[in-house]
């Protein structure tokens, strides 16, 4: 029995595999606008236009995807593909959702690595930095409005910010502690987390689901770690490709809250701990990722490309960069599909589990605080030429030399804010305008 047959009540007659393939490729090429825009487009095509899946089943799939670490839009596409055509449908949907954006991001990474020093490119990147500040603030406001439904959730967001900004707590630790708090509170007082106090009936489990999950877990783990193990055997444990594979595999496990939440943890790790790039380059990477279709988490590919490009031995820089980008993309997206295939047969039970929903609500609230940390970290490093991380016992803070304020960058950031919040420009339009203004400023200075 196929996945579609098992879930027939929520699905209209299944489209042909070739038709689904064409539609998923179209979605992958047009999926601009971040997770919200991508999910809205999938809803319009899969529910309204093609009528492949009904509204309750779509929302059910979305809820399941948001329970998992990883890019929720990619996982939603994978799950809908699984519903329609089983494992092959899920693979095709997930891969085609990511592939166009990944190829586009690879081209931009290559252009970035080889094109630095040209006034037009440097100017465009200068303007995009200002747009990125506004984009992150917009994400903070949007996610905060959705996530902070109660005073308790606001408190969790504040604690998340204090923990990561002032005490330099690891993002994975914040995720784990928030999940535990949410799990406990949901069992005792779900209203504190904005959850309904009514109990939903738990549907009957899918027959043989443990076997399906076991196969998915074993196959998924082997595929996930195979390239990292190969690099370890051939190149040694200290090679940059092994470091990239290990770091981004860890990131894939704790990637709750989307790319903006991860950026705070990732940026500080790749800049301050691993030394793979500068803070300004990290902002450039996010700006480039905003211009591509596909999940925003493809910014990780930019990091992997530059890290390997600059530490290329025994390869040429171009070959190493391509391998670094491929390694990053693989270990980020294979786990996100693994969670779907391992948990899809349990989705009904997960949906009705209030304690698990409470854990997710608490994580999402803490993520708001983490994104606030990211906003401040980006602002400091974009607007000031000299920012030094300081420590007083267990407290971390940033010393800023106000005399190094970049007036041009501040002016562009104000213009980007006006475009986004006053004139309501779209994301891509804002980036394009700011790139042009950045070129103009660089030409005049």
From TrEMBL:
This is Chromate transporter. It comes from the Bacteria. It is found in: Cell membrane. Keywords: Cell membrane, Membrane, Transmembrane, Transmembrane helix. InterPro entries: Chr_Tranpt_l_chain (IPR014047), Chromate_transpt (IPR003370). Pfam families: Chromate_transp. Its main location: membrane. GO terms for molecular function: chromate transmembrane transporter activity. It comes from Pseudorhodoplanes sinuspersici.
């Amino acid at each position: 029995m196929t996945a579609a047959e098992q879930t027939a009540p929520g699905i209209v007659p299944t489209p042909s595999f070739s038709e689904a393939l064409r539609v998923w490729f179209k979605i992958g090429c047009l999926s601009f606008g971040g997770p919200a825009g991508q999910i809205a487009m999938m809803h319009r095509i899969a529910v309204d236009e093609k009528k492949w899946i009904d509204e309750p089943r779509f929302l059910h799939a979305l809820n399941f995807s948001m329970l998992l670490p990883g890019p929720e839009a990619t996982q939603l596409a994978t799950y809908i593909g699984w519903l329609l055509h089983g494992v092959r449908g899920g693979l095709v949907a997930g891969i085609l959702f990511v592939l166009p954006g990944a190829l586009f991001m690879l081209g931009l990474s290559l252009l970035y690595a080889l094109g630095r020093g040209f006034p037009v490119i440097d100017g465009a990147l200068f303007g995009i930095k200002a747009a990125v500040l506004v984009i992150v603030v917009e994400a903070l406001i949007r996610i905060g409005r959705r996530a902070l439904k109660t005073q308790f959730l606001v408190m969790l967001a504040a604690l998340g910010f204090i923990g990561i900004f002032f005490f330099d707590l690891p993002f994975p630790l914040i995720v784990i502690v928030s999940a535990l708090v949410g799990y406990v509170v949901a069992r005792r007082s779900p209203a504190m987390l904005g959850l309904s106090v009514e109990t939903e009936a738990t549907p009957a489990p899918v027959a043989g689901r443990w076997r399906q999950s076991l196969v998915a877990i074993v196959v998924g783990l082997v595929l996930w770690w195979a390239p990292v193990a190969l690099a370890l055997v051939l190149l040694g444990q200290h090679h940059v490709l092994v470091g990239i594979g290990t770091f981004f595999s860890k990131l894939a496990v704790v990637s709750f809250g989307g790319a903006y939440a991860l950026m705070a943890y990732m940026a500080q790790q790749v800049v301050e701990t691993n030394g793979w790039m500068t803070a300004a380059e990290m902002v450039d990477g996010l700006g480039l990722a905003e211009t591509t279709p596909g999940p925003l988490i493809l910014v990780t590919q930019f990091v992997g490309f530059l890290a390997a490009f600059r530490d290329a031995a025994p390869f040429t820089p171009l070959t190493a960069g391509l391998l670094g980008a491929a390694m990053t993309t693989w270990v980020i997206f294979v786990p996100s599909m693994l969670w779907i295939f391992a948990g899809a047969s349990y989705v009904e039970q997960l949906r009705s589990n209030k304690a698990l929903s409470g854990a997710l609500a608490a994580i999402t609230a803490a993520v708001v605080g983490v994104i606030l940390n990211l906003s401040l970290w980006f602002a400091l490093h974009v607007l000031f030429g000299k920012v030094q991380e300081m420590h007083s016992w267990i407290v971390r803070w940033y010393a800023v030399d106000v005399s190094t304020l970049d007036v041009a960058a501040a002016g562009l950031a104000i213009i980007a804010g006006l475009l986004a919040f006053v004139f309501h420009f779209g994301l891509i339009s804002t980036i394009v305008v700011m790139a042009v203004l950045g070129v103009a400023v660089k030409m005049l200075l």
